[in-house]
């Protein structure tokens, strides 16, 4: 047996450096100084006698062996997290630390309803939040950087457990003086693909909107440029086009004080499924299902009328 065993902290530093590709950003994610992180990785290399990272002024490049060790380190850290989770799960549920990623098209609309409730009902819970796009959040979950993810389905999540919370209907939002303003709803064929504004690649809401419309020419012609729903609202309010947005955003008041009208999109797939997901066979499964119940109750959204 080797006379030296890497510490979990050293493995965390190594994984963070691989994830961020930058010593400063990796140190920030580990809540340590850059010198501390760098020294920890150098000590690991010195004690095992192997170079894991090639350092230059501008580039951080992992050696082939470094990449293999990072892959193993992910597994070790995940197992260590599960050991800690077993101990936490044996006590009172939803206490201690819980790390959750939330996608940007949910976080600003649902969290303001959830967080006050958690503070009141679960004061011993320390909830750490990360806002990430769906793919990044899934990777964070698989690597053990977070414990669960609040996202919208359908999305290929792989071998993860999930709890469906509710369906979030999709609406078409357009300038209030649009002459094509229908009385109650909008069918996909009524959408002018040359004026449709969507979120940029990486946001699953873009894919949900395109799937709901089910028109290949929209996928080819729609302008995908918005970095957030708030940006899209400003663009629509200034007469640059129309967009598709979820009910929870409208119910939260996103269209208040704008000259924008919203109508339900009439389509078989005109909704997204909001869900909480976590790693399969997690010892904290009961906690996550309890959290899902709290999320479901907190999301008791007011009914959205045909106009907003």
Question: Helix amount, in percent?
Answer: 40-55%
Number of helices: 11
From the structure provided, what is the oligomeric state, counting identical versus distinct chains? single chain
Name given to the CATH architecture of the largest domain: 3-Layer(aba) Sandwich
The structural class is alpha/beta
Order of helices and strands: HHHEEHEHEHEEEHHEHEHEEH
CATH class (first level) name of the largest domain: Alpha Beta
Which consecutive residue ranges, at least 5 long each, have pLDDT under 50?
Answer: none
The total count of strands amounts to 11
CATH topology of the largest domain: D-Maltodextrin-Binding Protein, domain 2
Query: Which strand-content bin applies to the residues?
Result: 15-25%
**Number of domain modules:** 2
Please summarize the sheet with the most strands.
9 strands, mixed
Overall geometric form: globular
Radius of gyration: 23 Å
- Mean pLDDT reading: 86
Compute the separation of the termini in Å: 67 Å
């Amino acid at each position: 047996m080797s006379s030296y065993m890497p510490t979990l902290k050293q493995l965390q530093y190594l994984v963070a450096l691989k994830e961020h590709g930058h010593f400063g950003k990796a140190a920030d994610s580990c809540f340590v100084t850059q010198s501390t992180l760098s020294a920890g990785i150098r000590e690991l290399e010195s004690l095992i006698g192997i170079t894991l990272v090639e350092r230059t002024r501008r580039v951080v490049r992992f050696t082939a062996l470094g990449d293999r060790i990072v892959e193993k380190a992910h597994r070790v850290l995940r197992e260590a997290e599960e050991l800690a989770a077993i101990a936490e799960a044996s006590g009172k549920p939803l206490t201690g630390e819980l790390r959750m990623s939330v996608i940007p098209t949910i976080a600003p609309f649902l969290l303001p309803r959830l967080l006050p409730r958690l503070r009141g009902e679960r004061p011993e819970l320390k909830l750490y939040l990360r806002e990430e796009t769906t793919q990044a959040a899934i990777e964070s979950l698989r690597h053990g950087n977070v414990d669960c993810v609040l996202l919208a389905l359908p999305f290929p999540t792989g071998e993860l457990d999930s709890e469906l919370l509710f369906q979030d209907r999709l609406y078409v939002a357009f300038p209030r003086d649009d002459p094509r303003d229908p009385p109650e709803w909008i069918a996909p064929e009524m959408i002018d693909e040359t004026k449709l504004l969507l979120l940029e690649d990486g946001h699953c809401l873009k894919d949900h909107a395109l799937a709901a419309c089910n028109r290949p020419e929209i996928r080819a012609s729609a302008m995908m440029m918005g970095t957030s729903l708030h940006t899209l609202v400003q663009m629509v309010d200034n007469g640059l086009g129309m967009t598709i947005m979820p009910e929870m955003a409208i119910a939260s008041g996103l269209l208040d004080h704008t000259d924008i009208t919203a109508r339900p999109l009439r389509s078989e797939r005109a909704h997204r499924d909001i869900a909480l997901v976590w790693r399969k066979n997690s010892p904290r499964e009961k906690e996550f299902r309890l959290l899902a119940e709290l999320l479901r109750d907190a999301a008791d959204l007011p009914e959205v009328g045909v106009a907003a």
